[in-house]
Structures are given as structure tokens and as C-alpha cells.
Amino acid sequence: MNIASIRPSTVDGIKQLAKKIHGEQRISYVLALDEASRQAGYDNFVNAKRQLGREHVPDLHPVYLSVHWCSGRANNVKRALSDLSSGRELLRLDLSRPLLEIVPKHRAPHARGLFGFRMEYEDHLEHRLNVDAQDKARQLLLGAARSLRFMEATGLQPVTTRKYQKLQRLMTRLPGRDHDSDWFDPVSASYVCLNEPDDPIRVSSPERDQWLAQNGLSCVAPDWPGIYCPWSCMPYLISPDGALLQRVASALVRVRPIRAPGFWPHETGICNDEFVSPRRQADAKPRRRRPGPFWVGHL
Q1: Among 101, 21, 15, residue whose Cα is nearest residue 52
Q2: What's the distance, Cα to Cα, between the start and end of the chain in Å?
Q3: Please, which pLDDT band fits residue 200 given cuts at 50, 70 and 90?
Q4: pTM of this structure
Q5: How many contiguous H segments (helices) and E segments (strands) does the chain have?
Q6: Which domains does the chain have, with CATH numbers?
């Protein structure tokens, strides 16, 4: 088993992983403890002991995100097979609820960060196309993880029907509009636009404030880095339901940011293999082949 795919959830588990890292990477056991702790989602071993000592670990529902990549395919450049480098990146994300409770299968591909993915099984989201670089594959995985954390925390769902078409058309005239995505709350049926512009000066204009007021819309800027381009774009939530916006913003404050790690702690496999998720294995259901495979830029 690739130790990069191990996610320990206890102090003892971190220590066991540290021993393996110590032997494999030939680093000191102290450094291996910190590395194993980061792989488990903590800053270092001291932070892991502190958090695990006071936290009750809830039941978690792992979901697996996969993207295949093959370099040398950009712009249809023909290269010898020996010049190509390829792989399959896999990221495991532990959710507080089953994936299907967070987003139904038919809505998943419509969510910001999940464009191009399909729900291959109830615990596996698979990107349909090959991308042309390992880094691109990893960025897609991180974006998908941010999208799932957003839905998990807020309960919002991506819009997939014409019910909100009037509001969606209205939002196309929003001053400073950029990188927006459409969501709704299944409980109240209220619409929410997530707007993630990269020009905060243009967004904070009196013209925009006046336009929002004239159209009966509320706007909040949550203390949260966003989905599209975290820490580079400024996320805003816009809706006719001001109370919903406050609830969503409060939920997002508690979401742990997903950053690009310096050392990629997740699994890298073989390009175009047929990854079978643990739930599919347990159900003994054979999987279908991935469509294609084609690569982004070829279609």
C-alpha cells in the first residue's frame, strides 16, 4: 500500500505512520512524526496530540476524487511514447455525511469545482477527461475538495433547473461580476450566487452597492478563501434572502481552508487504470470503463 494514501485518525496511528516514513524517507523520527501529522491534516505532531486529545472523532464518510493525466498531449503535439509521463492522482476526503447526502449524483457535475467530474460510485468522483500535466490534475482535485467542503458546511446545492432562471439572468448584469456560480438552499428554496472576482476595487464600487439595493439583493463577504482561486479572488455571497446569507457565512467561517501542500501527500497511480473505490469493492459491483479516455484540449 502506498503510505502517501494513509490518513491516520489517532495519535497511535500517526506514530505507526511515522515509523514507516522514517524508514522509507530516511529522516529522523521526530521529523517523521511531524510529516505523518501533516498527512493526517495537522500542522505538526504537537498540534495533532493537542487536537486529538480533546476532540471526539465523529463517524466519517470517505470519498475518493481521481484525475488522470498524461503530459505531452497539449496542442496535439506528437511525441514518442517514451517521452510521455502520465499518472492518476487520487485524493481522499473524509466527509461528515455520505456523499449522496451532500450532493445528488445528477447535480454533482454542475457545482463549482466539480465541472468535468462524474459520480462513478457513491464514494468516488472521477474526472472524465485526461489533463495534460500532473499539477493540473492536483489543482482539479483541490478545487473539487473545496467544493465538497462548501456544500458540506452550508447545505447549498448547485442549481440545475430553470426555477431560478430569472435571478440567474439578473445576476449577469451585476457590476463587477466574475467567476460566479449558482446555488440554492433545499430547505428554504432560496437562491444564492457565489461571486469570486479577482478585482476587489471594481467590486467595492458605489455602482455595485446601488445595483444590489435596487434589485432587493443582500451581499456578504464571508471570512473564507473561496473555491475558484483561494486567496487570490474575493468571494461574495449574494441573495434576496439576507438571513440565509448570514447563516451560510457563519458556517463557512468554520471550514478549514484547503491549501496546496508543499509535499503532495495523496496517492499517485497509473494513468487510465480502473480505480475501484472501497465501497464498490465491498458491494462487489464491477465498474464501467471511464469514457474515452480523451484529454483536455483534444475535444
Answers
A1: 15
A2: 35
A3: low
A4: 0.75
A5: 10, 10
A6: 3-54 (no CATH), 61-152+258-283 (no CATH), 157-253 (3.30.1360)
